[in-house]
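Exercise 7b. Backbone tokens:
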């Protein structure tokens, strides 16, 4: 029972809106949209123009692609197993497995070698130096600069494999078509050097 000095408890439930009130709210919303339609359209167009401008300001990237088949690498299972251990890859039975070579391309030692190689490009913005310099990391300490260059190079390189055909494809993207091509060639050169070293090891065995 409620005391005469105490306020009566109020219900938390709001009264349902009538159909007339709902219709009035809808009309008010429509009128507001019509009143501000030019501002809404202008903001939408402005956002689209801004996004297009940002995409035009973004540095252009050039991709160089290369591929090779496992038939070019005739090393034995034992030699490939030793190579897998050297580069921290899963050994198992790597012969005939394109995933092994994809991992080799992305191994830390190969990436470090590619990053420290010297490249020369011409054109309106000629460049000469390694990828540490290209990525603008020359002001950092030697090992730190190299680690960051390897990290950036990892992002710039994409690798794909075809398990049925045994073909490995990879692409290198940089701001220079010449540089992308030279970096891709360096990856292939390193793979050939590793394969040649394995064959020499087999010949001496």
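Sequence design result:
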């Amino acid at each position: 029972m409620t005391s005469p000095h105490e306020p009566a408890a109020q219900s938390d439930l709001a009264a349902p809106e009538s159909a007339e009130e709902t219709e009035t709210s809808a009309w008010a919303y429509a009128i507001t949209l019509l009143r501000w339609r030019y501002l809404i359209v202008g903001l939408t167009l402005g956002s689209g123009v801004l996004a297009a401008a940002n995409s035009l300001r973004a540095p252009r990237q050039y991709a160089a692609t290369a591929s090779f088949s496992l038939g070019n690498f005739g090393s034995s299972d034992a030699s490939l197993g030793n190579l897998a251990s050297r580069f921290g890859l899963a050994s198992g039975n790597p012969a005939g497995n394109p995933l092994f070579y994809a991992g080799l391309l992305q191994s830390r030692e190969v990436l470090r070698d590619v990053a420290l190689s010297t490249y020369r490009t011409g054109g309106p913005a000629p460049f000469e130096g390694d990828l540490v310099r290209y990525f603008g990391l020359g002001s950092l300490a030697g090992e730190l600069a190299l680690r960051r260059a390897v990290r950036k190079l990892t992002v710039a390189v994409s690798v794909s494999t075809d398990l049925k055909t045994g073909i490995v494809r990879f692409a290198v993207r940089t701001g220079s078509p010449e540089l992308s091509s030279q970096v891709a060639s360096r990856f292939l050169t390193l793979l050939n050097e590793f394969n040649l070293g394995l064959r020499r090891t087999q010949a001496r065995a």
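Instructor comment: The first helix runs from residue 19 to 35. The longest strand covers residues 62-69.
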